[in-house]
Amino acid sequence: MALTEFTGAWTDTTEQTVLAAGPARVTGIEVDANIAQSAVCFVQLFDNADPTPGTTVPDLVFKINALSTNAKRKNKVQFPGGVYFGTAITCFVSTTGSGATAPLTTVLPDRVRVHYVLGG
Questions:
Q1: 65 with 40: CB under 8 angstroms?
Q2: Which partner from 18, 47, 50, 120 sits 20 to 30 angstroms from 100, CA to CA?
Q3: Domains of the chain with bracketed CATH
Q4: Mean pLDDT within 63-68
């Protein structure tokens, strides 16, 4: 099993990040919300090596509520058997579930972990 973990300013907030360049199964996502997070953000995953956020429809979206809404700093979801991505796994964090606007750095999660298994 592979794990990609991003921490701190974990990504250039205007670009998506390719996690796996070939077929893979996402088995789980863990997100540590920013302690100052005052707005919702979304982790978008694409079965595409070069998606255009805001135009390309994400294949999997994980919503991270503001801490004032749910008071959960750690957010986790597991997918028994995995969610299959046939081309690639690419990640982008946005202000909406299918948008292209990256959140402010005070809203970006402190840590995002995407667990996946390479291959079919």
A1: yes
A2: 120
A3: 2-118 (2.60.120)
A4: 81
Neighbours of 4 (CB within 10 A): 16
Q: HSE on the CB side for 88, CA within 13 Å?
A: 13
The residue with greater pLDDT, 106 or 63, is 63
Q: What span, in angstroms and rounded, lies between the C-alpha atoms of 46 and 52? A: 10
Q: pLDDT digit string (tens) for 66-94?
A: 877 766 788 889 999 999 999 999 888 88
**CA 14, 19, 111: angle at the middle one, nearest 5?**
70
User: What is the average pLDDT across 43-62?
Assistant: 92
Q: With CA atoms as reference, report the closest residue to 119 among 91, 90, 82, 78.
A: 82
User: Are the beta carbons of 87 and 47 closer than 8 angstroms?
Assistant: yes
How many helices (H) and strands (E) in the chain?
Answer: 1, 8
Which three-class secondary structure state does DSSP give residue 51? Answer: coil
Model confidence pLDDT, tens digit, residues 92-112 = 888 889 988 878 777 888 888
